[in-house]
């Protein structure tokens, strides 16, 4: 809530029918690596696992990041198509 007797800030509610956002290359990498890191280090906390995965991402070369970048591009195309369809249905209402 704002000070000085201003009205509270309200957020727009998300439409549950809206398409899910596209994932970045990093999130595709995280999705793939998380179970392996957890299996190898069961004693680590979630924040420590995230830190290890982040360091691994940082150490990858651009060619090693290539498959994840292509997955991200495909997911972006998926999102744009779904969003276009969603906008059409939204306009029809």
Automatic annotation (TrEMBL):
Keywords: DNA-binding, Nucleus. This is High mobility group protein dsp1. InterPro entries: HMG_box_dom (IPR009071), HMG_box_dom_sf (IPR036910), HMGB (IPR050342). Residues 19-87 bind DNA. Residues 1-21 are annotated as: Disordered. Residues 19-87 form the HMG box domain. The keyword Transmembrane does not apply. It holds the Pfam family HMG_box. Gene3D superfamilies: High mobility group box domain. The keyword Nucleus applies. CDD domains: HMG-box_NHP6-like (cd01390). SUPFAM superfamilies: HMG-box. The lineage of its organism: Eukaryota, Metamonada, Anaeramoebidae, Anaeramoeba.
């Amino acid at each position: 809530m704002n000070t000085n007797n201003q009205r509270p800030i309200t957020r727009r509610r998300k439409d549950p029918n809206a398409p899910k956002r596209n994932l970045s290359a990093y999130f595709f990498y995280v999705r793939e690596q998380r179970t392996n890191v957890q299996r190898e280090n069961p004693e680590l906390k979630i924040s420590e696992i995230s830190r290890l995965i982040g360091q691994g991402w940082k150490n990858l070369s651009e060619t090693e990041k290539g498959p994840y970048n292509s997955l991200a591009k495909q997911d972006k195309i998926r999102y744009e198509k779904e969003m276009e369809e969603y906008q059409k249905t939204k306009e029809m209402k």
